[in-house]
Q: What sequence folds into this?
């Protein structure tokens, strides 16, 4: 039997009684004129004497979070989207019939309230209810100690309860919404066009990640959920859209951790006649403007560590970062076998035939990345691990690419785009051969993209930013699940 089923039955009996009395327990005819925040903003600083001169009545609505009933009066705490406010019921004011209805309401019910504002003897701003309406009869009681709901899985699985119980959770998601709007405004002001590209792809591409597979019955073909929008966005650049961005959902059929969710949100943008250095400058400007606006300065605390966003941010070459760690002999940069030995000493598992560049990338991820706490651009990655990036003009073994690290994790990845169709084909083919039997699972040659590239793509730079990880930093959230409304979880047993 469902836990708390007797309480549920009690509420069902109340609902049935309302219906027998001719009352609709789920009406939809109450008009709201104000929010709790409106009232606090307008009257929060006024004294009781000043409030007496306010003759206006206000209509608010929300969920009951607390009830104190005694004799011929009672208080309720009501929560709406903007916050909470206390309401005061008096039998002599609302009338006998309405007061009897008030005495039957439960925590979790929704009420529509109309009345004047005043301040109690304890100084709390309160709505003196003159008329009210039961808007929703809640059939399931909030969990015991709902006001301190702390069980992590319960919070993620029943986010609606989490939002009711924990005001900070709502603030996290309001920050997320605000951050995304700021991103849109930032790019729109700079002449970028927001676009949409497909989420169903005939060929998985744009990133070497395992895709989710689905099937289209009418077309009789396999499709893949988007791993990254990159190749479709570049098609638009080829078509003449020189400044574009997309805030998109991506899907990767891989592990789940505090930093990874199979479904996540990414910002990706492209600018023609720009380089990876322009992308770094734009990223610094974007992030600094957001931290200033949301945090109020250029420093924030994440996981107990202060992060300083004051520009200019540190920039360091990929190879230099490996040597600066003090963990490796310089020979690993020239000798693949030495790099493999270093990886094995660290206990890293390497697949047979792993390229030199991939081994170095694994060493970087294991040793260097966790120590990059302050905003740091790591530049010039090995060409072998950057199949879509333009080779550096002075050193073809590296590419004009950067990754941004903050708090020991990758936040952004950008580069000058490879727009030579012949070299791009060669890179794709090499990537396929290196992956061997795995290639058919994660990567196929995208002939249509290569065809589009043959028509000519202007010199272009692009970048992807993980919005979920960025919001984690802005809100001091330890897990990516804290900033996603409904993170993926196992089915309840």
A:
């Amino acid at each position: 039997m469902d836990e708390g089923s007797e309480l549920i039955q009690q509420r069902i009996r109340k609902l049935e009684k309302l219906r027998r009395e001719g009352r609709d327990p789920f009406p939809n005819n109450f008009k709201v004129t104000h929010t709790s925040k409106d009232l606090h903003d307008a009257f929060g600083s006024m004294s009781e004497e000043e409030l007496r001169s306010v003759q206006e009545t206000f209509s608010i609505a929300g969920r009951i979070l607390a009830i104190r009933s005694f004799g011929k009066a009672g208080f309720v705490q009501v929560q709406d989207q903007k916050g909470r406010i206390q309401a005061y019921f008096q039998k002599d004011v609302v009338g006998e019939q309405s007061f009897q209805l008030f005495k039957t309401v439960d925590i979790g019910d929704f009420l529509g309230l109309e009345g004047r504002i005043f301040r109690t003897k304890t100084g709390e701003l309160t709505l003196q209810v003159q008329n009210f309406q039961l808007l929703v009869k809640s059939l399931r009681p909030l969990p015991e100690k709902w006001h301190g709901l702390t069980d992590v899985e319960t919070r993620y699985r029943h986010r609606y309860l989490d939002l009711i119980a924990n005001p900070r959770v709502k603030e996290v998601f309001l920050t997320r919404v605000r951050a995304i709007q700021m991103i849109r405004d930032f790019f729109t002001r700079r002449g970028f066009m927001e676009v949409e590209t497909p989420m169903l792809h005939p060929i998985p591409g744009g990133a070497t990640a395992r895709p989710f597979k689905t099937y289209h019955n009418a077309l009789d073909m396999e499709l893949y959920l988007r791993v990254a929008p990159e190749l479709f966005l570049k098609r638009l650049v080829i078509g003449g859209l020189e400044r574009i961005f997309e805030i998109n959902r991506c899907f990767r059929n891989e592990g789940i951790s505090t930093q990874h969710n199979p479904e996540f949100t990414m910002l990706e943008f492209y600018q023609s006649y720009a380089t990876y250095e322009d992308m770094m400058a734009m990223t610094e400007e974007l992030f600094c403007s957001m931290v200033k606006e949301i945090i109020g300065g250029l420093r924030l605390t994440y996981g107990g560590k202060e992060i300083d966003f004051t520009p200019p941010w540190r920039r360091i070459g990929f190879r230099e970062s490996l040597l600066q760690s003090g963990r490796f002999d310089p020979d690993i940069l020239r000798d693949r076998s030495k790099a493999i030995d270093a990886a094995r000493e660290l206990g890293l598992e390497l697949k047979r035939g792993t390229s030199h560049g991939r081994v170095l990338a694994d060493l970087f991820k294991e040793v260097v990345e966790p120590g990059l706490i302050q905003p740091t651009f790591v530049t010039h990655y090995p060409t072998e691990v950057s199949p879509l990036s333009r080779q550096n003009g002075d050193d073809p073994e590296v590419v004009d690419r950067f990754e941004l690290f903050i708090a020991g994790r990758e936040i952004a990845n950008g580069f000058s785009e490879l727009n030579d169709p012949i070299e791009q084909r060669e890179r794709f083919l090499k990537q396929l051969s290196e992956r061997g039997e795995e290639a058919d699972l994660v990567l196929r040659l995208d002939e249509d993209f290569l065809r589009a590239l043959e028509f000519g793509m202007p010199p272009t730079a692009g970048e992807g930013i993980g919005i979920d990880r960025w919001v984690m930093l802005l809100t001091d959230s330890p897990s990516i699940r804290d900033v996603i409304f409904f993170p993926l979880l196992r089915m309840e047993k």
Notes: The domain at 164-313+374-483 is CATH 3.30.930.10 (BirA Bifunctional Protein; domain 2). The first strand starts at residue 58 and ends at 70. The radius of gyration is 29 Å. The chain has two domains: 5-141, 164-313+374-483.
